[in-house]
Amino acid sequence: MKPVLIIRTGRAPAPIRARHGDFPHWFRLGAQLSPDRVRVVDVEAGESLPAPNEVAGALITGSAAMVTERAAWSERTAGWIRDAMDLELPMFGVCYGHQLMSHALGGRVDYLPGGREIGTMPIEVLPTATNDVLASHLPSSFRAHTTHEQSVLEPPKGATVLARSARDAHHLLRYGPSALSVQFHPEFNADVMRAYIHRKREAMHKEGFDPHHTFRQVAPTPLARRLLRQFARHHGLATG
Fold this sequence. Notes:
Layout: E1 4-8, H1 14-20, H2 23-31, E2 38-42, E3 57-60, H3 72-86, E4 91-94, H4 96-104, E5 108-111, E6 117-125, E7 141-148, E8 150-154, E9 160-164, E10 172-176, E11 179-182, H5 190-199, H6 201-206, H7 211-216, H8 222-234
Parallel strand pairs: 1-2, 1-3, 3-4, 4-11
Antiparallel strand pairs: 5-8, 6-7, 6-9, 9-10, 10-11
């Protein structure tokens, strides 16, 4: 059986890792992947990706890096994404992974106007999701955890925008029958979201945001998490 690839584009800050674990662990749990089927490749550290036809699917993590930096490892991963799209490999990108997929396929990524988006936010599902095999199961609005400074400002040609927030018009994108990406974090739980807000509180103050209010608004996001699990099940990646 081919492995499920977790493309690691970064890591959580050390205090968060020490208490809550790190990206591959969160993705494996969120997607309900069997531990013995997962292969983690740390592209930020220079590890090489297997050929797309050697894996059953790929989940692409978030990162503290910026897609606009065009780091060599990031651009190599973008090329891999284009090759994987040619094979219609199941791919699910999150945050940096979402932006990298869009960048790889011809979209434009840059800083989100108005500054960072952070906290548990309402996500509006658009009419374009009505016939989507996964997004059609979502209600008209659901909550999701967010923390990002950059965003997809222009989706690639041919991509379908399925959901948005009040400030970010491109939170959920469909690129083809097997490729989906989200700006929000379905792999986060509420404790992880609170830890990120606590870590970013000084930057939030400087930018005119109230971290205490944002902290109090954190809530569970079961529907966002379910989307990751349903993607894995739909494409035969999950354990059950």
